[in-house]
Amino acid sequence: MLTTMRTIELLDESDELANMVLHSDVAEHYRECLNRLNKDTEAQKLIAEFGKMKEQYEDVQRFGKYHPDYKSITKQMRDIKRSVDLQHTIAAFKKAENELQKLLDEISVIIGQSVSEHIKVPTGNPFFDTGSSCGGGCGAGGSCGCSA
Protein backbone atom coordinates (compact mmCIF):
# COMPACT_ATOMS: atom_id res chain seq x y z
CA MET A 1 0.00 0.00 0.00
CA LEU A 2 2.86 2.36 0.85
CA THR A 3 4.54 1.69 -2.51
CA THR A 4 1.31 2.46 -4.35
CA MET A 5 0.89 5.76 -2.49
CA ARG A 6 4.50 6.76 -3.22
CA THR A 7 4.02 5.91 -6.89
CA ILE A 8 0.90 8.08 -7.01
CA GLU A 9 2.81 10.94 -5.33
CA LEU A 10 5.61 10.61 -7.91
CA LEU A 11 3.12 10.68 -10.76
CA ASP A 12 1.46 13.77 -9.28
CA GLU A 13 4.84 15.48 -8.93
CA SER A 14 5.77 14.57 -12.52
CA ASP A 15 2.46 16.09 -13.68
CA GLU A 16 3.33 19.22 -11.72
CA LEU A 17 6.77 19.38 -13.34
CA ALA A 18 5.24 18.91 -16.80
CA ASN A 19 2.78 21.68 -16.04
CA MET A 20 5.63 23.96 -14.97
CA VAL A 21 7.45 23.30 -18.25
CA LEU A 22 4.25 23.81 -20.21
CA HIS A 23 3.71 27.22 -18.61
CA SER A 24 7.37 28.30 -18.71
CA ASP A 25 8.61 31.30 -20.67
CA VAL A 26 10.60 28.96 -22.92
CA ALA A 27 7.51 26.90 -23.83
CA GLU A 28 5.41 30.03 -24.32
CA HIS A 29 8.05 31.49 -26.65
CA TYR A 30 8.10 28.20 -28.57
CA ARG A 31 4.31 28.27 -29.04
CA GLU A 32 4.44 31.91 -30.17
CA CYS A 33 7.13 31.11 -32.75
CA LEU A 34 5.20 28.04 -33.93
CA ASN A 35 2.06 30.15 -34.31
CA ARG A 36 3.96 32.82 -36.28
CA LEU A 37 5.49 30.11 -38.46
CA ASN A 38 2.10 28.57 -39.19
CA LYS A 39 0.69 31.96 -40.19
CA ASP A 40 3.67 33.07 -42.31
CA THR A 41 2.70 32.32 -45.93
CA GLU A 42 6.23 32.95 -47.22
CA ALA A 43 7.67 30.46 -44.73
CA GLN A 44 5.00 27.88 -45.53
CA LYS A 45 5.71 28.26 -49.24
CA LEU A 46 9.43 27.73 -48.63
CA ILE A 47 8.73 24.68 -46.47
CA ALA A 48 6.52 23.19 -49.19
CA GLU A 49 9.19 23.88 -51.85
CA PHE A 50 11.78 22.29 -49.59
CA GLY A 51 9.59 19.19 -49.20
CA LYS A 52 9.21 18.78 -52.95
CA MET A 53 12.91 19.35 -53.54
CA LYS A 54 13.77 16.87 -50.79
CA GLU A 55 11.81 14.15 -52.61
CA GLN A 56 13.70 14.87 -55.84
CA TYR A 57 16.99 14.98 -53.95
CA GLU A 58 16.33 11.60 -52.31
CA ASP A 59 15.56 10.07 -55.72
CA VAL A 60 18.80 11.46 -57.11
CA GLN A 61 20.79 10.22 -54.10
CA ARG A 62 19.82 6.63 -54.85
CA PHE A 63 21.97 6.79 -57.99
CA GLY A 64 24.46 9.38 -56.75
CA LYS A 65 26.67 11.17 -59.23
CA TYR A 66 25.53 8.79 -61.97
CA HIS A 67 22.05 10.34 -62.02
CA PRO A 68 21.76 12.74 -65.01
CA ASP A 69 20.35 15.54 -62.81
CA TYR A 70 22.71 14.98 -59.87
CA LYS A 71 24.53 18.32 -60.03
CA SER A 72 21.51 20.50 -60.73
CA ILE A 73 19.26 18.86 -58.11
CA THR A 74 22.05 18.92 -55.52
CA LYS A 75 22.65 22.63 -56.16
CA GLN A 76 18.93 23.41 -56.05
CA MET A 77 18.68 21.51 -52.76
CA ARG A 78 21.53 23.52 -51.23
CA ASP A 79 19.94 26.76 -52.44
CA ILE A 80 16.47 25.99 -51.04
CA LYS A 81 17.99 24.74 -47.78
CA ARG A 82 19.91 28.02 -47.43
CA SER A 83 16.71 29.97 -48.14
CA VAL A 84 14.83 27.99 -45.50
CA ASP A 85 17.61 28.40 -42.93
CA LEU A 86 17.84 32.16 -43.51
CA GLN A 87 14.09 32.84 -43.49
CA HIS A 88 13.46 34.86 -40.32
CA THR A 89 10.32 33.09 -39.05
CA ILE A 90 11.77 29.62 -39.63
CA ALA A 91 15.07 30.55 -37.97
CA ALA A 92 13.24 31.98 -34.95
CA PHE A 93 11.15 28.82 -34.64
CA LYS A 94 14.21 26.55 -34.87
CA LYS A 95 15.95 28.61 -32.18
CA ALA A 96 12.90 28.43 -29.88
CA GLU A 97 12.61 24.70 -30.53
CA ASN A 98 16.27 24.19 -29.59
CA GLU A 99 15.83 26.26 -26.41
CA LEU A 100 12.85 24.12 -25.35
CA GLN A 101 14.78 20.94 -26.16
CA LYS A 102 17.70 22.22 -24.08
CA LEU A 103 15.38 22.80 -21.10
CA LEU A 104 13.94 19.28 -21.44
CA ASP A 105 17.47 17.83 -21.72
CA GLU A 106 18.56 19.69 -18.58
CA ILE A 107 15.55 18.39 -16.65
CA SER A 108 16.21 14.83 -17.85
CA VAL A 109 19.83 15.02 -16.75
CA ILE A 110 18.90 16.42 -13.33
CA ILE A 111 16.35 13.66 -12.77
CA GLY A 112 18.70 10.94 -13.98
CA GLN A 113 21.64 12.21 -11.92
CA SER A 114 19.46 12.47 -8.82
CA VAL A 115 18.84 8.72 -9.10
CA SER A 116 22.46 7.82 -9.84
CA GLU A 117 25.42 9.50 -11.48
CA HIS A 118 25.76 6.39 -13.64
CA ILE A 119 22.31 6.74 -15.23
CA LYS A 120 22.59 7.34 -18.95
CA VAL A 121 20.13 9.99 -20.11
CA PRO A 122 19.81 10.02 -23.93
CA THR A 123 19.58 13.71 -24.76
CA GLY A 124 20.91 13.70 -28.31
CA ASN A 125 23.26 16.45 -27.10
CA PRO A 126 26.88 15.43 -26.43
CA PHE A 127 27.16 18.24 -23.86
CA PHE A 128 24.65 16.47 -21.63
CA ASP A 129 25.58 12.86 -22.37
CA THR A 130 27.56 11.66 -19.39
CA GLY A 131 28.94 8.38 -18.26
CA SER A 132 30.90 5.98 -20.41
CA SER A 133 32.29 6.57 -23.85
CA CYS A 134 29.37 4.84 -25.54
CA GLY A 135 27.10 7.85 -24.89
CA GLY A 136 24.10 5.76 -23.97
CA GLY A 137 22.53 2.39 -24.71
CA CYS A 138 24.90 0.81 -27.21
CA GLY A 139 23.38 -2.61 -26.68
CA ALA A 140 26.68 -4.20 -27.62
CA GLY A 141 27.26 -5.81 -24.24
CA GLY A 142 30.22 -3.63 -23.34
CA SER A 143 32.21 -3.90 -26.57
CA CYS A 144 32.51 -0.10 -26.71
CA GLY A 145 34.19 -0.02 -23.31
CA CYS A 146 31.09 0.63 -21.24
CA SER A 147 29.93 -1.74 -18.54
CA ALA A 148 26.61 -2.58 -20.18
Q: How many β strands by DSSP?
A: 0
What structural category characterises the helix and strand content? mainly alpha
Number of helices: 5
- Radius of gyration, in Å, reads 22 Å
Q: Mind summarizing the main beta sheet? A: none
The helix/strand series, from N terminus to C terminus, equals HHHHH
Q: What overall geometry do the principal axes of the alpha carbons give? A: elongated
User: So what's the oligomer here?
Assistant: single chain
List the helices and strands and how they pair.
Elements: H1 2-22, H2 25-39, H3 41-63, H4 70-86, H5 88-115
Structure write-up:
The protein is mainly α and 148 residues long. The protein is 70% helix and 0% strand. It has five helices and no strands. The protein has helices at residues 2-22, 25-39, 41-63, 70-86, 88-115. Helix 2 (25-39) packs antiparallel against helix 5. The longest helix has 28 residues, at 88-115. It starts with a helix and ends in a 33-residue tail after the last helix.
